[in-house]
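Write out the 3D structure for:
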Amino acid sequence: MSERDSVDVAVIGGGAAGLMCAMTAGARGRSVVVLDHADRLGKKILISGGGRCNFTNRDAGPQHYRSQNPHFCRSALARYAPADFLALVERHRIAWHEKTLGQLFCDGSAKEIVALLLAECAAAGVMIRTGALIAGVERIAGSSRRFAIDLGGSVVEATSLVLATGGLSIPTIGASDLGYRLARQFGLAMVATDPALVPFILRADGGYSALSGIAVPARVACNGESFDEALLFTHAGLSGPVILQISSCWNHGDEVAIDLLPSADGAQILIAAKRGGSPATIARVLHDHLPKRLVQHWAGPHDLERPVARATDQDLARAARAFHAWTLVPSGTEGYRKAEVTRGGIDTAGLSSKTMEARAVPGLYCVGEIVDVTGWLGGYNFQWAWASGHSAGEVA
């Protein structure tokens, strides 16, 4: 490209949503350039799913997303479904497997998903510019649908401008607030952003760091929503899939309720042991159902060292409730450094749900994580990236 070039579509951001938008627009015969400040594209894809990329979820539907307008994502998800991306994966002969809860992963490496996207872009004639630092973006005077992107030494003009810069999560791989700043510049309203799908921090005086490394199945609830998956104690607090899920529902100061025995009735277990004449303590009976270190942590405060034979049924029910109804107020989260996604973003009220175009700014499109649509853990956010990117790419 020269010092001043003109294209039909300029996509700022070379992640999942941006590359999907670019290849879709390019396949329509549009001239497209992807501009990204990083030295390589798809960095978040590469680290996802433990390096194997949980690229979609078979069951992805509107009910798996959070937004101030929960219906906004319906159109895009309906027109580009998980089966559509899976067909693309299979066309590129990428081996995959399904884990629990509909989660689809590469058998090999997440690099295969990035290679797929880049191959599709190349086939569609999409130009890629890495190391592209955006000095500014403005609408060209006298034109309602023409944008100039200043790259600090060269300028790209485009009829359609797509913001696909992602959120604030994982700044170590280049996350920034560029997209949000550009959205505000063009007058788009914003929904407050927060880290999401992120571990909790607990106050040190609870002594929970001593439980670090323990993982148990759990049911966790907050603000009317609940999830059943694995919970992991960490040096800082709590993590694991169930905690990441519930973190998207949590606001600072909210109480979280945790059932550490979601598939058993602790009271009935203890009462049965008592009826059977067991000489064991409450703690010893529970060792068969929970990690010993976890039970011992609860033992002192909840008087679990008594033999079950010397406890009333009410005492045993109370002891069980300590595990079934553990409530706490996290002191915070581990922030954007550990968050998988960013909650909030560009207000969907200002966007078309069919095209992702800004209603008040013709030619400006917003896709992926930058928009106020946040999926559950388990491939749902990638599916939103594919669906929203495809919707914009069909019309940009």
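Residues 4-195+340-393 form a domain with the FAD/NAD(P)-binding domain fold (CATH 3.50.50.60).
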